[in-house]
Automatic annotation (TrEMBL):
Pfam families recorded: AP_endonuc_2
InterPro entries the UniProt entry points to: IolE/XylAMocC-like, Xyl_isomerase-like_sf, Xyl_isomerase-like_TIM-brl
Protein name as it appears in the record: Sugar phosphate isomerase/epimerase
Gene3D superfamilies found in the cross-reference section: Divalent-metal-dependent TIM barrel enzymes
Length: 309
């Protein structure tokens, strides 16, 4: 696997993810095959990847290690989905989902587990599944159970959880992100700041980094198209259809500007992964690779390093 010593002087390590290849599910005929993703992400100039939806990439650690190593790739994180605001009664089901993913993530040498809260409306059909605002009791469940998850994942697998604010979830806006961070233990819970989702929900990524710098444990680099976003917000379009409309766009054509975000991240003077995610589902199979290559070149122009030899 690639060594972390290849990171940028400011500690920023650039990668990409299956999401940037239109991959949202373990198996879907509209998605590119996993071997093609690995081939193309490596050729595009990235050396770090996330696992994506569990089961998309091989789940046997030895096989996945062979497949990634042969392409000069290493794994930065796995991803889990949770509905912890429902309280202790969902813990067993949540842990059953988390455990296999955490085990594979650790086996691949990664140190992070990205935690995405459950959606309050279906991301494809738009069906409202529950109220978009949590009660005080649900907030207490969310924060206490997330701390429990952070503790268990750290104790059992040596991984740090990084919670991902996401459109159409209860951790979305500046207000809700701040409330969540203020109510959770920084030793157990860090943030995966997704610049696109935070802008989608009206937040300022640079301000968040400057205000809660010690809580930023991981970055997803993404931009939104402001014109499409305005229509999405005005018409209350669910996240899935919004993505299909192109609300997440190729840098540097959207917001937020990524140069100041990366500059703010460098000022933290800590090692950070910055994983490119341009939500594109569904998309033609030949579309992701040219975008990924251009995005990598753009990020080099922002001062991120070239791939290690």
């Amino acid at each position: 696997m690639a060594s972390s010593s290849a990171s940028a002087p400011a500690g920023i390590r650039i990668g990409s993810a299956p999401d940037s290849w239109g991959v949202w599910f373990p198996d879907d005929p509209r998605q590119v095959p996993w071997r093609r993703f690995l081939d193309e992400v490596s050729t595009a100039g990235y050396e770090w990847i996330e696992l994506g939806p569990y089961g998309y990439l091989p789940t046997d650690p030895a096989r996945l290690a062979d497949e990634t190593r042969s392409r000069g790739l290493s794994v930065s994180a796995g991803t889990v989905f949770t509905g912890l605001h429902h309280g202790p009664e969902v813990w067993d089901r949540t842990w059953a989902h988390v455990a296999d993913i955490a085990a594979l993530t650790r086996a691949m040498g990664a140190a992070h587990l990205v935690v995405i809260p459950s959606f309050w409306r279906d991301d494809r059909t738009g069906e409202v599944l529950e109220d978009r605002a949590l009660t005080a009791g649900q907030w207490r469940h969310l924060t206490s159970q997330t701390e429990r998850l952070g503790r268990e994942v750290l104790d059992r697998y040596g991984l740090r959880i990084v919670v991902h604010p996401h459109a159409d979830t209860h951790i979305d806006t500046e207000e809700n992100v701040s409330r969540f961070l203020d109510a959770t233990d920084p030793d157990l819970v860090s943030l995966c700041l997704d610049t696109g989702h935070y802008a989608y929900c009206g937040g300022d990524s640079v301000e968040l980094i400057e205000t809660y710098g010690e809580r930023i444990g991981y970055l997803h680099l993404k931009q939104v198209d402001p014109e499409i976003l305005a229509d999405v917000v005005a018409n209350e379009v669910p996240f899935g259809p919004a993505v299909a409309r192109g609300v997440m766009c190729e840098p540097p054509g959207g917001v937020p500007a990524l140069e100041p975000v990366l500059a703010a991240a460098r000022r933290l003077d800590v090692d950070l992964f910055a994983i490119v995610e341009q939500d594109m589902y569904p998309c033609p199979p030949d579309r992701p690779f040219p975008i990924a290559r251009r995005t990598r070149e753009f990020l080099r122009s922002c001062g991120t390093p070239r791939r290690a030899p």
